[in-house]
Structure formats: structure tokens, C-alpha cells
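Shift notes (night). Ran Metallo-beta-lactamase family protein while the centrifuge was going.
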Amino acid sequence: MTMTLQFLGAAEEVTGSCHLLTVNDKQVLLDCGLIQGSKADAMRNYQAFRFEPSQIDAVILSHAHIDHSGRIPQLVKSGFKGPIYTHKASAELCAIMLKDAAMLQQRDTERLNKKRLKKGLEPLQALFDEQDVEQTIQQFKPLNYGESIQVLPQLTLQLSDAGHILGSAIVELWISEIGTRKKIVFSGDLGREGMPILDDPEIIKTADLVLMESTYGNRLHRSWQQTIDELEQIFAAAISGSQGNILLPAFSVGRAQELLYLFHLYAKQWDLSRWRICLDSPMAIEATKVYINNYPVMDDDFKRFTQQHPGEHPLLSNVEFIQSTEQSMELNEINQGLIIIAGSGMCNGGRIRCHLEHNLWRPECDVIICGYQAISTPGRMLVDGADYLTIRGKPVKVAAKLHTVGGLSAHADQAELIHWYQQFDNAPPLILVHGEQQVQQDLLAAIQASFAQPAVMLAAKQGDKLDLSALPELVWLT
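Came back to this:
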């Protein structure tokens, strides 16, 4: 029996999650995400897949974030016709996010082709369009947590709650053959314990191999109370000055809804009545509706409040939804008193770019960075102390007060990742994915130090292929 696993994305880097599982003559993808970051990184999405898309039998999607789902329409466009298994909430979110991605693809490709034509280069085709997305949506097979389904004759799938965003899943896979049974656990992106809205990541006890994300594998987040105190101080200082606006670049799915919930919970404590809170992202608005409709999979506090206060939903109580471009542009005529939540979370697109253009150069304004910033993104440049940010081809001075609030991260930190892995019986072999190279090495060292007996572990490299039939030994074929 042939059983292999090849790492084709998010290997020693964050974004572009993609892993190819082969069982005899059948092939299954774990995620198929868009590569994000610099312009050079984005251009890698135009490269051909390292497999034949028409030969893929199924896709198993851990969650809806674009760095995990964003190339599935491209896969469909290239000939993939099989089912896409994911949690039902993830399927609903993907219907929103992939349509938005298609629109961005068309727009960005048009801009890129203008530059290419001036250089005498051949124009590029958009990776996919709305028609490809519509076909992709038809291929989704929504699942519930805990539901077991046979993906292939030899492959059984079950999803467990990863606590990262709505619908995020830990993927449990059982590969069976006469006399052979192996269990693979893929963490997807793991959330944090005690965070609002979502349940904590589920603990899994058994595995023959664990694939674990490592985004924040070399740092510890502030505690939840420290984070709340930090935000209160930021708002208190901004209110005392009362001369500018507050910008929050936020991922449209997950972070935006978390911020709305916090503004509801702490409206009085943070004295937010003097501020106009605007969610300026059509995609985040649509995603918020999906969150509202899926409250039964939220944590107990969120469910209890929603049930006890039917006319005061915690994601709707004190926010304005900004839908049209005209409404968004009107916000830039207002110099103070606005809290603007807008995408993209890494400041590399979306309406936040326009708001940064109008506010970043103003010392009386505040910018709160509250999510992961990939290398070479404008958000990372701000975090790293850039003096200027180029927006629409022009340099904008960074004079606003910049705050990096790591405690709002939806990713587990080093201690939480180690704790999650420690709950497995007998320390199964561990392979790290979805993390920067140095971060992964720091995490590996920390995990080894926490075990009396050394565990078998390493970070996957791009293109590495593992022989699963040899487990618990890690035997590489390439």
C-alpha cells in the first residue's frame, strides 16, 4: 500500500497552506491556500500546481481564511471536479470570501497587465473568476464537528473545533488497509484558550502523526486581561486627546467580529459612547451575518447572551455598517471621533489603505495592529517601524501613534501550541507547518525541552514527501 504526504505550501513560511496526501492511486489535498505577502510572493500563485488538478479526488479544507482556501477556485478552473469537505460554517464563509477574492483577482490582474504591457511582457490571466467560484461552491460538502465521513474507501475524516475562526477545524484522518491503520491529525490554524465568541481548541489524544501550525511559535501573547487593559489605555489616551481617529486594520473573518464583540462588552468601561464605530468592509459585514446565524457553535457565554437578549445582538449593538464606496469615502472627510474597522488585516489592500492615506500622517490619530503581519506586507512594515508607507504610488509619513496588540491574535502562542501537542498520548511524531523558519526552530527547541524523552519532530520543507507507511519513523522519499 502506498501512503505518502507531500508538503507543497506553508512550508517554512506562513500562507499558501497545501499538503498532498496519496493513498494508493488516490490523491487528497489538505487545504489549497493563496500565497500572500510581497508582490514576488503573490506572483508564485501564477505558477502551475505541482500535481495534476484533474487527478485530485477530494479537498479537505481546515477553514475559510484565504491563505488556506484561496486557490481552490483556481484548482477547479484547472480541472478539479471532486468534493470539498469542510465545516458548514466554513462553506458559508467561503461563498463570501472567494467571491471577493475573484473580484480582487480581476482588478489586480488588470493593473498588473498594464505594467506588463508597457514592459513588452505577455499579459496574465486572472487566477480565477466569479464563474469558477460559483462552480467551487457547488462542490462543497458541508460537515458538522464530530461527524465521520468516508472520503475514500481507505480514508475516513472527522472534523473537531480548532477555535481559530468560525468553522475552523482540526482535521482527523484514518487511513485503513488490511492489517494497517494510521491516524493523521492536521491542526489547521489553532485558536487560543479563553478567547471570546469561540470555544477553545479541542484536545485530541491519539495520532500516528501530527501536523501542527507554528505561526506564533516563538512568542507568548499577553493574557486576555492584560489585552483588555491595554486596549482600555489606548482608548483612554485617544479620548483625552480627542483630536483624531482610530484605525483598526482587521481580517474580515474572525478579527472583525471579535472586535465588534469587545466593543459591545466594554462599551461603558472604555467610554465608547463618544465614538462612532464603523465596520467599513462589505465582506466583514456579510461574514458577521454568518456568525450571527451560526451562534449555536459559539462558546457558552456568547450563546447565553444571544438567547437572553434577542433584541440586542452582541455583534450589532453599537456599530455602523459601511457598505458603499461613497459611504467609505465620506469617512475620510471626518477628522476625529471615528473608530474604523476595515480590511485588509495586513494593510495590503482593501479600504484600510484609503483610511491610512488620510490618517496615517496625522500625529493625533492612532493605528492599532491586532493580527499577524506577513513579511513584506505594509502592516509588517508599520510594525517594524517604517517612517513612510507607499500608498497609491505616493509616500505617506507614519506620524500616527502605532499600537501592536498581540493579545488579540487568533493563533495559539508558543505555550498554547506546546500544551495542545502535549495532550497526545506517547508524543507522536510532529511536523511543523505554517510558520517562518526561525520561529519553527525556536518552537522545536521549546517542545524538545518540555519532554523527558525526545520526540521525533521537524519543520517541513517545500516539496518534502513523507512515507506514511513507515510511521512512527519519519522516512523521507524526497
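The chain has two domains: 3-219+410-477, 224-404. The longest strand covers residues 169-177.
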